[in-house]
Each structure stands twice: as structure tokens, then as C-alpha cells.
Amino acid sequence: MRGLVLLVALLAASIVRAEPQPAPQDEPKPPARTNRLAKETSPYLLLHAHNPVDWYPWGEEALAKARQEKKLIFLSIGYSSCYWCHVMERESFMDDQIAERLNQNFVCIKVDREERPDLDEIYMQALRVYMQLIGSKQGGGWPLSMFLTPDAKPLMGGTYFPPRDVEGRLGFLTVIDRVREAWNSDSEKWQKTGDSLANYVADSLRQRPILRVVKLNQELVDSVLRALVAQYDTVHAGFGFDPASPDRAKFPEPPNLHFLLDYARRHKSETARKMAYQTLERVSLGGIRDHVGGGFHRYSTDRLWRVPHFEKMLYDNAQLARVYAQAYELTPREDFKRAADETLEFMLREMTDASGGFYSAIDAETDSKEGRYYVWTCEEVKAVLEPTEYELFAAVYGLLGEPNFEERYIPLLSRTLAETAKERKTSESELDERLRPVHAKLLAARGKRARPLTDTKVLAGWNGLAIRGFADCGRVFKNERYVTAATRAADFVLKSMRDNEGRLLRVYAGSQAKTLGYLDDHAFLVDGLIALHQATGETRWLEAAGELTDRQLDLFWDERVGGFFYTSKLHEQLIARSKLAADNVTPSGNSVAAANLLYLAQALDKPDYQARAEKCVQAAAPILEENPAAAVELAVSVATLVEHARRSAQPAAK
């Protein structure tokens, strides 16, 4: 291990401490051409199809070329709504000098992380390990820029690099030169470094043997609540605020909210209910919510939820619609219903394919300017509205104060509509009715602007989340239109996103489906089908969920430990085959799978599913015990198991 640290540190030193080199004179630009990405279907990859960089998609052609020519691989991983991915593409990958240097010395591979989350997970973990070894506090992020050995072992990397040296920071041109020079100086030594780093990454992703059995009891569930209380921002709601890092981004974190609402329902806990409701309220007031067009942006750049990062993701909106409906079930609040309704209307209007499937994302930038599509000047609003309408909108949505985003306004609420209505001596419903035509006028005007890019690929797992959101809202709000949307999406995925042998595929784009589905695709889709059964009572959804679950058990189940691998036994073998137990922006596939098995065990009368669910939970329980806030979705299944045990222990009614 010590030798690995020294080698990696030496490589880092050759890059980080290198003196800036003068850039050669620009050469005449070659004629425009198309690289291999033009044959791909991912909207993100297609954006790079005309780069002068000789990009390859990940696959045997590129990997074989690297091995045969003994060239390093430059691996760039991003996604369509990633702002800094676009910046690096414009600055570096469209730069002829950088492209020439890359093409001469590297095999360049571009990956859409949403198509290949397995690659993204492994090489993002490699970046984290690399940063730890060189003593850097920098974390991961996108674009992910990794340099690999010819056999795809990680050497070093970073995220965004400026094209050339600036203000003491090395530019990408200098970085690629230093990596090339280090490799050429002693490729055998650096190959050993790559081998060692790959082994370290694989070990970090490998599930440790279970040395003890964790008691699946109420105390374990309660520990999750205590962990969330400790992380809760008592001033502005949400989780993870750190006074030492006040500028840290804040995410709504739907898995946390789902757990809290489930805990509040089971135990009538005011603590859990209050944290969930305050967070949902603050999120719905802030600029992270699109008050004109509905839906939510990805995260807030500030503690107060005011200024978002403007991309819109399907998984965020699907999950938030669900938790707002879940909160409404506990306490029928019109603002929660309104937030859910507006989110689903946005998804139907802007993220739904004619086939019924849901698109993946909407970009944050327009004409290289982040958020420009969503923000306003007072003059722009006045040009659309009547004077009385402008007075109302400006007063309610904060246009009377100073601009809150680059001399423009992000519409947001400083208080709930109910509070504003009371101040104006009217009712919440009457104020909402007055604002609806105002929103419609502004939305129509906004629609005439240059639109951000929409990533039109359909992902099976994310559609499962959307099916759950629409089905739950349809059931709770008694809205058949929502149930119909969920039904259309489920029918599309089940019919159009399978291979000839009926196996689920992850991606549908360019009128074709491809890439074997991962654990999340199976688990999230089964969860959506369960939600459709709950909303409609139709047995066909249970049958489809059972069939998909059986395939999941066959392809992903870990016979040694229990639980599910992220990749199936049919997937390409990479550095590691991980088992994800921790939640991220979406819940862990293992946690959702456990909940699915528990539901289907009862609904389909399959005791084997119950046994598998218990093994799945037990396999991940040590993580929940050690770090309760890391796997909150799993705690919902623990709570269900505790409830089942309590009912079984009760004497039968006479």
C-alpha cells in the first residue's frame, strides 16, 4: 500500500507541480468531420459527434485499440444536463490543438453516465481513491476525466479542467502532456500503479463478509430517525447543512422524506412529520421550484433554497411528486397537492414521449448561459402581464426587491400562499385562481424563448420512479389522468424495452432499446408496477411485477451473502461487481428490491419472496447500523419486517 501511495504521489507531482508550458502556435483548422459517436443514440454522446477529438464509445473496438497500440485511455464521463460537461466540451474538446494531442497519444472514450452507471460508479470511485492517496480534499463530480492504462486500469484523473493554465491552475493541455510524459518515461512502473489502484478500488466496492447478525428491530429504525434529526437544518429545513461549509449545495433528498413520512404514519411521530413537512414547505417556496412552469430543479446552491442549479431531472420530479402526495395523505394540505399537480403537469407537458415513456432530463443552460430560460427582468414580466396582474405577481413572487440572480429574478415565495392570502384578506384558493392565468401567460411567453436541451432518452429505472409518482398521485388525488399516464409508461417499457428473450433493457433512444438493465432498472420498475396495482387493483400489474422480480432474482442475486449485485451475471465484467446499499439521489436498488419482495410475498402468496427480502435486508443491515443516515430507504423495509413480526406475535382473534 505504501508503494502505491508513493507511485501515485509521484504521478500527481508530475502533473500538479508542473511548470506551465508555452502553448504552440495555432495551426489551421482541419475540415469539419464526424467521429464514431455519430452512430450512437444518446443525446449526450451525439453532442460530441462533431468534436475534433477522435471519440470512441465504450466498447471492444476502443479497448482493443488501446491494448494493441499500448496507448493510454482518456475516459470522459458526463451527462446531457451537466453544465460543466458542456463547458469543457466547448473549451477543450472543440479545441484543435488539444484534440490533436489527444488523438496522437490516447484512445479517447466518451461515456454517458446515465447509460452506463456501472462504468461511472467504478471510475468515480477510482477518482475518489486517487484524491485520497495524493492528499487532496477534492471530491468527485462531472465531467469525470480519467486517464487509464491500456487495459483500462485507473491511473489518475480529475473533473473539469480549464483548457490552458490559468491563475495557478493547470490547464488540460498541460495535464495531458504530463500524463503522456510520465507514461512514456516508465510505462511498466505506471502499469503496476494502475494494477494496484484497480485492486484497491475493487476492494473498496466489494461487500465485506457479514461477521455478525444485526437485530432487525425498532431500535434500528429509531436510530435512522435520530441520525436525520442530527443532520436537520432547524432554521431552513433540509439535511446536511454544515456551518463550516455554508455554501454547500442542498438537495431535497426524497429518500429521507419518504422515510420520515412512513415513520410518521406508523408511529404518529410529530418529530418525523415536522421535519418532512417543513422541508417540503421550504422546497416548495424557494427558487428550486419552477413557479411558472411547475416541477423542480436539481438542487439549491444556497441554504435557503433560493438559487437552484437549473437542470431538471426526471428522478427528482418523480420522487418529489410521490412524497408530496404521501404528505397529503397524512394531512390534506392544498399547497402540497398544488406542488404535486404542477410537477406532474410539467412532466406531461415537457418530459413525455409520444409513446408514453418519460424523458430523462432538461438542461440547465441556454446559449451557454445557465438558467437564462427560467429567469426574468421586471420589464419582461411587465410586457406580458396587465398592470394589476404584474402588481400581484411581483408582490407574491419577490420582484419588488433586488434581483436575486445575475441582475434578473428567479420567482420564489417568501411565505406560503395561505399566509399571503390572509394578508390580502382573501382565501388561498381564490389567490391561487387569480395566479393561474398569470402563470399561463408567463409560461406561454417563456415558451417562445430558446429552449434548453431535452435529453430524450427513456431510462427503464427512472420511468419506474415516474410510474410510481403518477400512480400514487392518481390514487391519492383520485385523478384518472395521472393513472392513465402511469399505465402508458408501464406498457411502453414492458413492450418496447426488452430484448428477444424478454430481458429488461435500460435505454430507449433513437427508436431502439439497448443495454441490459441494471438492478435499479428492475427494482424501480417493479416498484412502479406495484404502485399501479395499488392504484387500479388490476392483477396484470402484479403478474408483471412477479415476472420481473423472478428475472431479477435469477440475474442479480448474491448466493453467497444475499442481496443483489448492481450488475447482472450477463453484464460485461469490469474491475468490480458492486452491491450498492447506500441511498443517493435515488434510493438504493437493494432497498427498493427488499420492499418489493415484502409486498409481493403477501400479494402473490410467495413465502420465498419473504425469505429473500429478509436476506436482502440482513446483507445490508451492517451499513444501516454503522451509518443510519446512509440507507434510510432500507429502514422502511426494516420497519415493515418489525411490523410483520409484531402482528405474528399477537394472539389470533377469537
Describe this structure in words.
- This protein is an alpha+beta fold and 654 residues long.
- Helix content is 53%, strand content 8%.
- The protein contains 24 helices and 15 strands.
- It has helices spanning 2-16, 43-46, 60-69, 83-93, 96-105, 117-133, 172-185, 187-205, 218-231, 254-267, 270-285, 314-330, 334-350, 378-384, 387-396, 417-423, 428-446, 460-477, 480-496, 519-536, 539-556, 589-603, 607-626, 632-649, and strands spanning 55-57, 72-78, 106-112, 144-148, 154-158, 299-300, 308-309, 312-313, 361-362, 365-366, 369-370, 454-455, 458-459, 505-509, 512-516.
- Strands 1-3-2-4-5 form a 5-stranded mixed β-sheet, sandwiched between helices. Strands 8-9-12 form a 3-stranded antiparallel β-sheet. A 3-stranded antiparallel β-sheet has the order 13-14-15.
- A hairpin with a 2-residue loop joins strand 14 (505-509) and strand 15 (512-516).
- It is globular.
- The chain starts with a helix and ends in a 5-residue tail after the last helix.
- Residues 16-31 have low confidence and may be disordered.
Quickly list its features:
654 residues; alpha+beta; 24 helices; 15 strands; globular
Count of strand segments: 15
- Cα-to-Cα separation, first versus last residue: 66 Å
Total DSSP helices: 24
Q: What's the alpha carbon Rg, rounded to whole Å?
A: 26 Å
